[in-house]
Amino acid sequence: MKHIYERYVTLMFIVVALSTPKLFSQSGTDFWFAPPEITNLHNSPGGEPLYLLISSMGQASTITISQPANGGFTPIIVNVAANKSARVNLTAFKTLLETEPTNTVPVSYTHLTLPTNREV
């Protein structure tokens, strides 16, 4: 009986893996994001560490992370080699990045830009 179950699970895994459509990344030169506020009750202090994970596809990329609505935010420049990934630690900017309070239009939107059209 155990062998039948194992074969069934293996067969289902293979079917799902083969039937999954090809995955695509975002491509362009302009990306915006606004991370939500995470409650401190989740593994205090909540939402830390705060990382932005960036991957380049095929060509090296220079990414600029900025907050246009916040004149005091110094842009962060990240260079990512072709077919590599980078992890940017944004924990120090948590209070500037998190979107709070709820049900308001925040000025904390973060902007990622690339000099030419790339998949990231």
What does this molecule look like?
The protein is built from two helices and six strands. The model has no long low-confidence stretch (mean pLDDT 76). The radius of gyration is 20 Å and the shape is extended. The N and C termini lie far apart (47 Å). The chain has 120 residues and is an alpha+beta fold. The protein has a single domain, classed as Jelly Rolls. The longest helix has 18 residues, at 2-19.
Task: Report the CATH C-level class.
Answer: Mainly Beta
Number of strands: 6
What is the CA–CA distance across the termini? 47 Å
What is the average per-residue confidence, as pLDDT, rounded to a whole number? 76
Discrete helix count: 2
Kindly give the count of domains: 1
Morphology: extended
> In percent, how much strand structure appears in the residues?
25-35%
C-alpha-based Rg, rounded: 20 Å
Stretches with pLDDT under 50, minimum 5 residues: none
- Could you please say which CATH topology applies here? Jelly Rolls
Which range best describes the helical content: under 10%, 10-25%, 25-40%, 40-55%, 55-70% or over 70%? 10-25%
Structural class: alpha+beta
Strand order of the largest sheet: 1-6-3-4
Q: Please tell me the CATH architecture by its name.
A: Sandwich
**Order of helices and strands, N to C?**
HEEEEEHE
Question: What summary fits the major beta sheet?
Answer: 4 strands, antiparallel
